[in-house]
Amino acid sequence: MSSAYTPTIRYCTRALRSPSRPSIKVPAIFSQHQRRVPSRRWATAAVPASPKVAGIVDQISQLTLLETADLVSSLKSRLNIPDMPMGGFAAAAPAAAAAPVEEEEAAPVAQEKTLFNLVLKSFDATAKPKIIKEVKSMLGLSLVDSKKFVESVPKQMKESVAKDECQKIIDTMKGLGGVVVME
C-alpha cells in the first residue's frame, strides 16, 4: 500500500467504524475540487465610504471609455493638473533622445567631466600577484575572481568615479606596475 493513501484510508475506516456519524464528510484537504483564490496585493479591507463618494464611484464605473477620457481631461483643466507622461521607462526614452539636442545647442559652453570610468589596460608580468591583491582589496572580489579579472585585461575596473579618487587609484596601480586609464 502506498504511503500517500494511508491517511485517507485511516480517515475512512474511522468514519465507517464510528456509530455516532451516520454520514462521511471528506475533509477539505482530500477534496479534488477545492479552489484556491489567488492572493491579491491590491485587495484591501472594505473602507467605509460616504454615500456621496459611493454615488460618484458608481456613476464613474458606468461611463464608457470616451466619456471617461472626457472626464479626465475636464478634471485636469478644472483642477490645473499638468499633463505628465505615463509609462515609466518607455516614456523616458523619448525624453532622453531630446536631451542631446539641447546639449548641441549648449556646446559652446565648456563643461568639464567630473565622473570617469577606470580601465585596467595592462600590467607587468612580474607585478601580477601585487595587481591581483590590489584588485581584490579595491573591488571586494574573491582571490579567484580577482585573478580572472586581472587575466582578462583590458577590463573596466570602476564606473563613475570622481577625478581625485581616479588619480589615487591610477598612482597606486602605476606604483605596482599596472596601467590604468581614465575614460
- In what order do the strands lie side by side in the largest sheet? 2-1-3
How much is the radius of gyration in Å?
34 Å
For the residues shown, what is the average pLDDT?
75
Number of strands: 3
Q: Which regions contain 5 or more consecutive residues with pLDDT less than 50?
A: 88-92
| Amino- and carboxy-terminal Cα gap | 71 Å
Order of helices and strands: HHHHEHHEHE
Q: Helix count? A: 7
Largest sheet: 3 strands, antiparallel
**Which bin fits the share of residues in helices?**
40-55%
Determine the strand fraction and express it as a percent band.
5-15%
Output the structural class.
alpha+beta
Shape: flat
Please, could you describe this protein's structure?
There is one protein chain. The chain has 183 residues and is an alpha+beta fold. It contains 7 helices and 3 strands; from the N terminus they run ααααβααβαβ. It has helices at residues 6-17, 51-61, 65-79, 89-105, 128-139, 143-151, 163-176, and strands at 115-123, 155-162, 178-182. The protein has a 3-stranded antiparallel β-sheet. Helix 5 (128-139) packs across helix 6. It starts with 5 loop residues before the first helix and ends with a strand.
